[in-house]
Amino acid sequence: MPRVYLSAEPGEDGGRGFLARVEQMCKLKRGTLEQHLQALRDSGANAHCEVFYKSWQELAKASEDGVLDAELQGAFDTVQRLGEERVEQAVAAIRAAKVADKSQADYIFSTCHKYKGEEEDWVQLADDFRPIAAGVDPNEDRDEYCLLFVAVTRAKKALVLNRDLQQLMSQQDPGQAPPLLLSKVSGDA
Description:
The chain has helices at 18-30, 33-43, 56-65, 70-82, 84-96, 112-115, 130-134, 142-152, 163-170, 183-186, and strands spanning 4-6, 107-109, 120-124, 155-160. By secondary structure, it is mainly α. The N and C termini lie far apart (46 Å). This is DNA helicase.
């Protein structure tokens, strides 16, 4: 079984991170989030809620209106794309494969914020850079484009583009140079 290091998941105590968010969203969609949090509190575990919406419909409306922060939107999109059962299975598998020492890991799951200054030979981007998918101009969401810059510059040897970047690159004419998405962000334009 592959070993996984979670640099973006602070612990097994109810944790604040992506896994906790998607897990709680699945429970919200099923209508069992409150019972889950109460069971955590009853057991003495940290019952921090990552999802600040009372219903799945309210969360979906916030997503539609574009008011979710990037972390919640990424988790929402994951649950929408994969469904609750697949997400919960993946979360359980990731947690079962978790190792405490990064040097023992076959795979490292991290956010861009946590990986600033770090590098790896091989990096695969997740599908959670919303401005690219939505076609947002870099001047309108500078922070997210800066995070994308951090993400793509973590790879020393190979970078696997996410679905949105692959689609963006494939829309170019064969003789045309790829767009310089980050030129406005870095001030080079």
